[in-house]
């Protein structure tokens, strides 16, 4: 019985589902950083610190106060327990400082994890295989802001044209990348999730007297008040100097034209008459 001519390496590659053909230019080598176990442990604790805080708080409350909480609910009637649960749920749903703090912390944790996953997928690594160090994530009025410490071999240029990818990874509407003016290793990434001015109407303080009036009333009262002449000056004359004209003998004389404007005030409306007696109220 003839033996198979395939080598063990080709058989193993076939079993693992990998093709032995390698296209030119398609090989990618990723170097993992050489870190000791204490460094890995510290980085893991730093990355998952908020989750560890919540887990430690739950364990502490369960061990130290679990029996007291259970006995309190068992001693109360059913309607009182239901009322306490409804009040607690209403307090969580309504807008209050505690709820805002919890939601902001949750979104900061989500943003930090999603940003780190995006940096891994975008290969924002140096030759040692290190990612930019996330200094912290803080809440803002429009979303979150993340501060990065770029490792040796990295700069803000590695994040050029990556704003849309970062916004998509963080489930946000927009991402803005900026470098610190004092230190090139510090990079600020603003994640915008909401527009605080989208559902608000900004009223100008200049329209306090006419903001609640209809347009017709505003046109009659506010606009015509400026066009109405003073009662003391019922008629005004204006003289306009024009370009001097030359006479036949070489002398020059100044041409002057007089325009007489007469304003007649009625009880209902204001009528402004021109020099020839024509009503020019609509043109003023």
Lateral arrangement of strands in the main beta sheet: 1-2-4-3
Helix content: 25-40%
Please tally the helical runs, counting DSSP H or I stretches of 4 or more residues. 7
Gross geometry: flat
The number of E-state strands comes to 9
Could you say which structural class the secondary elements and strand pairing correspond to? Answer: alpha+beta
What does this structure look like?
- With 284 residues, this protein is α+β, with helices and mostly antiparallel strands.
- The chain has a domain at 37-192.
- Helix content is 38%, strand content 18%.
- It contains 7 helices and 9 strands, in the order H-H-H-H-H-E-E-H-E-E-H-E-E-E-E-E.
- It has a 4-stranded antiparallel β-sheet, covered by helices on one side. The chain has a 3-stranded antiparallel β-sheet with strand order 5-8-9, with no helix packed on it. The protein has a two-stranded antiparallel sheet with strand order 6-7.
- A hairpin with a 3-residue loop joins strand 1 and strand 2 (143-149).
- The longest helix has 27 residues, at 49-75.
- The chain is flat, with a radius of gyration of 39 Å.
- Residues 8-20, 235-241 and 256-267 have low confidence and may be disordered.
